[in-house]
Structures
1.
Amino acid sequence: MNSHIQVNAMAETMKKVQKQTKSLLASQQKQRSSTAGQLDSMSGKLAELEAMFAALLEMCRRRQALLEDSLAFYQLVQDLQEEAQWLDEKTAICAAPIQVGELWPLPAKKLSFGSSLIFALPDPTVVSAKKNFCVPAVA
């Protein structure tokens, strides 16, 4: 940020120098004294200064674009890391064995037949001898 502030301050200084130089050149051309060589030298120096400042502004634009690209890249990397962590958490949950106590209460299933709704709840009384497995009731 500091260099950005310096460039903006330099832009204001450049405007002042351009204005002063142009007004000085205009007044000197009206007088047409023997200072023609000095006028050409001053015009050349001003043109050189303007070209250098334009090059500086172009480098600043390129640097800003690179910084914005870097920010977007690191934001993408951070988002990918968060997604990978979320996937790891969900994988661990899915890989964990299910205990019988975790099966009840299961959410009710809504079955619609025509205009009436039927709620089907699992039967908690029919459980196999294994602790990690629930056998559905046979109707």
2.
Amino acid sequence: MRFAALRARAPGGTYEELAAPAIAREGLSVTCGDKSVQPGTSYKYRVDTINESGRRTLFETDAIATPAMPLTLHQNHPNPFNPSTTISYYVPAAGPVTLDVYDSSGKLVARLLERAMKQKGTHLVEWRGRDAQGRSVSSGVYFYRLTSGKETISRKMVLLRARNKRAGEKRERGRSPQSYDRRVSSSVIVGRRVSSHAPSRHVPS
């Protein structure tokens, strides 16, 4: 036997089965967790049992109201990031939304949304670490700012570019033999002891 949890918007909504409900049963008590609700919305729930004999409704709830939530800007993920990150936000009512990215000096780097009409609910935007001209920006601290109606919310994020190993290798190969000799000759040799800064070698008596 297995349990199935169904949800309907109240009043008068059609029941739909939840994809991955957290259902637990202890004796005659059954609990069901639902993480996909919309704030400020009322729902009704139903739990069915399913076995070889068929499907039977175990119980049905009255309307359950979820509390309303204000305009919300979530922390980007991942953070720090390279090369891209996802920004999520919640709007409590349909309306235009603007989302900007600024550098630490306050300069506008990129406008991800410009008065884009969004419905009530949670939305996602990806930033790939590029400016308005499509150029990759450097490592550093950036701020993203969400504006909807008269409200504005800002958060901080960190971009960490990976070090270019090939460039480092090219610089090492480009050093002249004279520069290597100068580095070795600057090592201090006392008696038969050679400092750890120089390559290991035999010192004649």
3.
Amino acid sequence: MQSIRSEGGRADKQLGSLLWHRGLRYRRKSQLPGKPDLVFPSAKVVVFVDGDFWHGRYLEERIARGDFKRNAEYWISKLRRTIERDQRYTIELEKAGWRVIRVWESDFQRVPAAIVEEIAQLVTKSGGERNTSSFKS
């Protein structure tokens, strides 16, 4: 587990690329709690792209189905701690004045345009800068 780095996955890179092409500028590296995938400092918006398995989506349903065959106690405990940690970071960031957006990876893969639009609206409404010079006419 120590060798797993928080470099981001394919989905958050695709999301970042789509937002960049919309003219929205963000940072990838920050000292903020939870290491958000995308940070829009001027709008005070952060985006996390959470993998369904690693961040415990449908955890209770998976437990009920018996999806965890090996080391069930370990994995269930680990995923519950991850869920609690994600909630803690969200609260901490919100208390500091940040708007927190959490996107499930599978939702982004299913409807990327809707998610990009939702983030773009929130960032621009919150005072985020748009760089329109990157658009090609």
4.
Amino acid sequence: MLLEHSSKNKKILLLVSAVILIAGVFLSLYSSVIFQEGNPWPQIKSIAQLKFSGKNIVQLSGSDNKFMTESKNGTIIHDFMKTKGYEFTGQMGSGYFFKSLTGQNAVVTHKYYSRHYSLWTIAENNNSESNNLWTTITNDQSVTFQYPKELLAKYVSVVEWPPIIKIETGAYSCKTTPLEVSSMSNITSERMVDDRTYCVNIKNEGATGSVYSLYTYTTIKSDELVKVSFTLQLANPEIDKNVVVPFTIQDSKSGRESLASEYDLKQLLKKTLENTNWRLMSDGVSYRLGVLNGRLKGYESEEDLLKLVKN
């Protein structure tokens, strides 16, 4: 009787130990994702609600302005904001801009919690003049415009800011760069931004270990050419335990939704890097005005390479 009881206790102990071991391995592998927002319980609860309640969007417990959706549904936030009386007005990177009929503004910022789930933070503002994301300036051509105080983009810093806006006479034309002769140093393409067609030219130059990109957006308005230009600096590679390399590319498909563009690039990178020692970092890919950026990590140690093989 005692032997039977002891054997049963050993089985329970082994089972508990196995569960603890599996949980420990799981947490060590995915802790950066699970704990990226601190306490993971609100996110875990929201994922369960999305799975079993039939809802498309759920509010995170303990938060007034944070919501979660499945990542595959990129337009659900538009529909949700419409129920709150807002209409979509534009997008800048991970920021989505809305305005109500009463003049109230709202900014919704997007972040991937994982490959399958997205987090949305909604900031509402009753007075558009006090919106601290934007500022107003008048240039030497007496052109008054608004621009964001800072970019909602990762791994990119501004060099020339605010943007330079010039008004010129002439006819709009855009000689796009054919893919077969394009180079990273000079690319011209047409893009749709907020239902307006722009001719976008990007010139890349390298200096002292950095990459500088001069962007020029040209469009026609009131029979005049409007040119908007600014210079961005791409982040340098980080060399520590691993090598981390930022990247920036332009989406060649005009009019593609930002979430769809981010998802397609992540899937392409996953497939392309499968048999290499490089991986897309957990913070993923961000999108702004047709430009996608993110970071790749290179693994060198034997331990890290073994993990890649097992995964």
